[in-house]
Amino acid sequence: MAFESLTDKLQNVFKNLRSKGKLTEEDVKTALKEVKLALLEADVNFKVVKQFIKAVEARAIGSDVMNGLNPGQMVIKIVNEEMITLMGSETTEIKMQPGKSITTIMMCGLQGAGKTTTTAKLAGKLKQRGKKPLLVACDVYRPAAIRQLQVNGEKQQVDVFSMGDNQSPVDIAKAAIEHAKKNSHNVVILDTAGRLHIDEDMMTELQNIKEQVDVHQTLLVVDAMTGQDAVTVAKEFDDKIVIDGVVLSKMDGDTRGGAALSVKAVTGKPILYVGMGEKLSDLEQFYPERMASRILGMGDVLSLIEKAQENISIDEDKEKEMAARLKKGKFDFNDYLESMKQMRNMGGLTSILSMLPGMGKQLGNIESMIDEKQLAKTEAIILSMTPDERKNPKLLNLSRKSRIARGAGVDMAVVNRFVKQFEQSQKMMKQMPGMMGGKRRGGFGGMRFPF
Ligand SMILES: Nc1nc2c(ncn2[C@@H]2O[C@H](COP(=O)(O)OP(=O)(O)OP(=O)(O)O)[C@@H](O)[C@H]2O)c(=O)[nH]1
């Protein structure tokens, strides 16, 4: 399975992070060291790894993240976001020429990279989008390649143009475009020759086609299983002939994932598609976001976090009102209770989660993130107070605290700690007005659960 080992390693790092309630700078650094190793073992370009870790570290080490509600989860979220950025942020489509013009796409790549197969796969995709593609056999050095394209074209029910192996690829491409015009094809895909290694002849031939035929998109097919070699090949092709994008073939057999993670960062050119098998239907559009989720093995967990955040901010007016009270140092246990209620909204999601396929393994992590038990106990402590006590903790003497502890089913020490923390938070808020004015959500003056 794609990325299997990288996903496993990252999941272990994240498990450790999640198990810690509060994170120190050292915890984050240790975790990122492990992420770095995992990425290097996955054959991600070392410069890319260095920059990636630097970017994550800059965002993860800081009070906002480390004092937040779920620091471990926040770090994971940052890793995810940086991974998306690394792979290009946005999905790139093949650019079509407007109107009735013909879009000419030149496919290139080393021998055996999967170019001919990908060409036919791509034709199928474009056909699905309502285009009328024409495949062109420009590999005049390997007669078998022409035959292969014809066979694949037939399977896809797409026309294939060939002139045998006695003409130059430039002449074949020119004739193909004329043929396309006459037969109302709107996309021409040139399947060029592959070589075992990058050589001058190959590059000159591609350059000639680009110069003499109006090529609109140059796509390079690289074999994902070759890891960093694929990235080097992409860089060389881009330097010599300028490519517009990359198709990563054989991702289904790539357990490491280094090429997928490095191509964009090294070449600046996006991955458009990934080959996920030998069948002609096995071509997928490349979505950086989904790929990052796949690599992290936690797409569903991340969407759950988003959802949880959405839930917390549902009642924005209340949140604003509370923030205003906090700024004035006027917040009391009733506000805390309100905050709890909003957090509790997330709790219901655990049941949705258990229904998602493949989420069994993750369930423990989510539960510790939401920790309904802690929420319930804290809520019970506040609910055991009288309305006056909720407004003024100073009214809580020893005997009252003892009764509240019994009422809430917790140790007296827990109540003591909670009330003390609460009073400290109140004091802090008075001293530092504006501290709650930012985007921080879910936290309560930096206050944590008393357990
Ligand atoms: N598993 C898997 N195999 C693939 C994929 N794409 C291509 N292949 C296989 O890789 C082999 C080489 O593919 P070709 O399309 O012949 O490669 P090429 O780059 O056109 O090679 P030349 O024509 O020799 O330049 C074939 O056996 C394909 O079936 C993929 O995404 N996954």
TrEMBL record:
The entry's keywords = Cytoplasm, GTP-binding, Hydrolase, Nucleotide-binding, Ribonucleoprotein, RNA-binding, Signal recognition particle
Question: Corresponding gene?
Answer: ffh
RNA-binding is among the record's keywords = yes
Record HAMAP family? SRP54 (MF_00306)
E.C. designation(s): 3.6.5.4
One GO MF term attached to the UniProt entry: GTPase activity
Question: What InterPro entries does the entry give?
Answer: AAA+_ATPase, P-loop_NTPase, Signal_recog_part_SRP54_M_sf, Signal_recog_particl_SRP54_hlx, Signal_recog_particle_SRP54_M, SRP, SRP54, SRP54_GTPase_dom
Please list the reactions this protein catalyses. GTP + H2O = GDP + phosphate + H(+)
List positions binding GTP. Answer: 109-116, 191-195, 249-252
Q: How does it assemble?
A: Part of the signal recognition particle protein translocation system, which is composed of SRP and FtsY.
Q: The SRP54-type proteins GTP-binding domain covers which part of the protein?
A: 270-283
Domain of life the protein comes from: Bacteria
Q: What is this protein called?
A: Signal recognition particle protein
- Main function: Involved in targeting and insertion of nascent membrane proteins into the cytoplasmic membrane. Binds to the hydrophobic signal sequence of the ribosome-nascent chain (RNC) as it emerges from the ribosomes. The SRP-RNC complex is then targeted to the cytoplasmic membrane where it interacts with the SRP receptor FtsY.
Q: Give the protein family.
A: Belongs to the GTP-binding SRP family. SRP54 subfamily.
Please name the Gene3D superfamilies in this protein's record: P-loop containing nucleotide triphosphate hydrolases, Signal recognition particle SRP54, nucleotide-binding domain, Signal recognition particle, SRP54 subunit, M-domain
Q: What is known of its domains?
A: Composed of three domains: the N-terminal N domain, which is responsible for interactions with the ribosome, the central G domain, which binds GTP, and the C-terminal M domain, which binds the RNA and the signal sequence of the RNC.
Enumerate the subcellular locations listed in this protein's record, separating them with semicolons: Cytoplasm
CC terms in the record's Gene Ontology section: signal recognition particle
The answer to whether UniProt assigns keyword Glycoprotein to this entry is no
Coiled-coil ranges (or none): none
Q: What class of enzyme is it?
A: hydrolase
By its UniProt entry, which SUPFAM superfamilies does this protein fall under?
Answer: P-loop containing nucleoside triphosphate hydrolases, Signal peptide-binding domain
